[in-house]
Amino acid sequence: MSHSIEIPARRGKAHEVKMGQSIKLINTHGNQVVDTWAYVADDLGEYMSMEATRATITKLIPAVGDTLYTNNRRPILTLTEDTTPGIHDTLLAACDRYRYGLLGCTDYHDNCSDNLAAAMEALGYNISHTPAPLNMFMNIPWTQEGSLSFESPTSKPGQYSILKAELDLIIAFSTCPQDMLPVNGENQIPTNAHFEILP
Amino acid sequence: MSHSIEIPARRGKAHEVKMGQSIKLINTHGNQVVDTWAYVADDLGEYMSMEATRATITKLIPAVGDTLYTNNRRPILTLTEDTTPGIHDTLLAACDRYRYGLLGCTDYHDNCSDNLAAAMEALGYNISHTPAPLNMFMNIPWTQEGSLSFESPTSKPGQYSILKAELDLIIAFSTCPQDMLPVNGENQIPTNAHFEILP
To answer: How many structural domains compose chain B?
Structure first.
């Protein structure tokens, strides 16, 4: 019986996952973007890469059945089930202290990049930089002309996505603390989310 | 008087550039993709980031007047002139030894990732990983549904793009040695290209 692990609001959480296990990521409150990273367990220099994934699946967003690839072009996760409308993002950087500075913040603002580092550090890992994340539930539509916009997530409370581990890995999540743009819904209130490790 | 510097076919070349100088990148033979990176001169941990750029300019491809941003969200280059049709790519990873393995290569194949490392090493710099490149002249169209395809460049021989340095930086180029997909034109023959540093 799997148990539910909380990703607290505005925070990160990392967890070891064995090859063949799956991670069920639940959008508990429905509008919460969850930045997602995956690292190869025995080599943090190899990690899930959005630019390698797009080149391999030739899509902007992975759909059920699609695999995510590492910077060494190895399968690391496969999206095996998705009860959301399937709108996720592979295009945008994780928010960071600099991003909030550009948005006008003068004090420290929680951010996904620092959340990733803290979550990995809690497991004893130090990372050198922030890879481009898989932004689960994030809604960044594009036009045929190539314009992007920030829109509210389309996922409803309790909807989930399941990612199967293709090798031993460390999964890391951050519940995006963005409250200055409507990426976490029109009310712009970041919430917690949950995940389960399935055998 | 600026002089022309060759980026040999299938190879990389890096060069120091001062704030305010511009780099004129010439597609000498017209169909050659040139993977492009830029690093902050006094801190290689800060570099041009496609994911940060897309988030800031809210576009898939920068146009004349648009600025490219670092992973710390600082302006690093501005596209000030472009005599090509303006088709470049920010979505795909640099090719690497793993990519050619997936395409069926059993021997070593020249690749942009190794070219970047070698070009930086020739200036005395060691890099820790390959950031997502700005793929100048590369033609990767998207559909409204989010499908990507590999198409021939639209640039003609002698057409060029000018990038202005917003801070002291190291620019690195690789003439993409891809000869298994038509990213360098239908004839799939990688060629050299040239650049000039303008005062």
So the answer is: 1
